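Try it yourself: sequence plus adenosine-5'-triphosphate, in.
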Amino acid sequence: MVSLKKINVEVPDTANDRRAILTIEDLSFPPGELTVVAGPSGSGKSTLLNVISGITPLTSGSVTVFGETVTDFRESRRDAWRRQTVGMIFQDFNLIGELSPLDNIRLPESFGKAARPAADARSLMKRFGVPEDRTTVSRMSRGEQQRVAIARALLFDPRIILADEPTASLDTKNGSFVIDSLIEEAAKGKTVIAVSHDPEFAARAATTIHLDHGRVVRKDRAQ
Ligand SMILES: Nc1ncnc2c1ncn2[C@@H]1O[C@H](COP(=O)(O)OP(=O)(O)OP(=O)(O)O)[C@@H](O)[C@H]1O
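Structure, out:
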């Protein structure tokens, strides 16, 4: 379980000195489920993902993941924790264009030791239908690049998967493939949280959380 308690994130603001961009009293994300986070631009969706992964520092509050209060971790421990516990998938993929798909998938191995052994990158390529004959990812289509990004996010078999608009720049077929893959991961017991405006995503999620002005304004549970 990922639990957020009494979260407040403030940023410097020229007009008011400080401005709250995320305020959450109590919010939990259960394992084995896909949760979609929706809301207008600037409502705090990416900030919420970054709070869970420990990238954005809190002004106050705590994030507890499987019994560990990760907001108490020192930076180096949090980095190591993130590497082995959180898989991140981004709208713009964050791949290195000059590297091959295989090297992109293996990239997290070079960031330091992880507690869990890395999965076989070639098996991940097969599972996600990544073409094996491309020398660099810059020569791949967006749909193919997103498959590489998903495979990379799963390299250390993370218990949490965070995806920021992972279908936004994809056509319907590739978008559905991404949603299917994330639902498959949730079915294995992972906590999957995806920011998305895509109605297909929300329709297939166990829960959709709506944010506005940094606050949860609605929570829809699938019937
Ligand atoms: N480091 C920061 N410093 C100042 N303001 C920030 C910072 N990070 C985010 N913000 C502001 O916080 C608000 C929420 O940003 P966030 O990126 O979480 O929104 P979002 O819902 O993901 O938006 P979008 O859908 O446009 O990506 C925005 O007004 C943004 O400008």
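One thing you can check immediately is this: The mean pLDDT is 92.
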